[in-house]
Write a structure and sequence with these properties.
By secondary structure, the chain is mostly helical. Helix content is about 70%, strand content about 0%.
Length: about 150
Amino acid sequence: MQPKKPEFLDEKELRRTIIDLLSRRDYSRLELFRKLKKRCDDAELLEQILDDFQQRNWQSDQRFAESFLNSRYQRGLGPMRLKQEMRDKGLANDVILLALESLEVDWYQLAFDVAQKKANSLKESDPNKKQKLFRFLAYRGFNSDQIAYAMDEM
């Protein structure tokens, strides 16, 4: 039995697929490209369609960045981790910085809140509690000043 050859989408089907994806949530341009390139045999056509969607403002990296930030910072992630995740999604640095500036978050307070929550889950008798807390906050994407503030406040 021969493996099935992938069926490539034509322009109309590509447009319909992108609209269907964007109707559920925002995507960065790179995410859409990566998702659809295996279903399209013409990368130039896909780029043209994505350009058209951007011009019509149906797809916007800025809107995606703001939406992404809102959902992720509420999970207790710091600015460094958020920047890296947005770079991985294919967002430009200026888009990332603009989105971070528009987000009104006190990163120091967020670091403290996250540290407090994590500290409650650690054993009181644990001699490495401070080190674990520091590593946890660093992993979450807080910088050393924010971590120091959180540790001092606790």
